[in-house]
Amino acid sequence: MLIDFLTEQQKQFDRAAQAVLSSAERYLCFDSIADVYAAPWLANFPKAAQLSVSGLDDGAEQFCIRVQFDAQYMQIDYAESTHAVWLDRFGKKRHF
Question: Can you tell which superkingdom this protein's organism belongs to (predicted)?
Answer without folding.
Answer: Bacteria
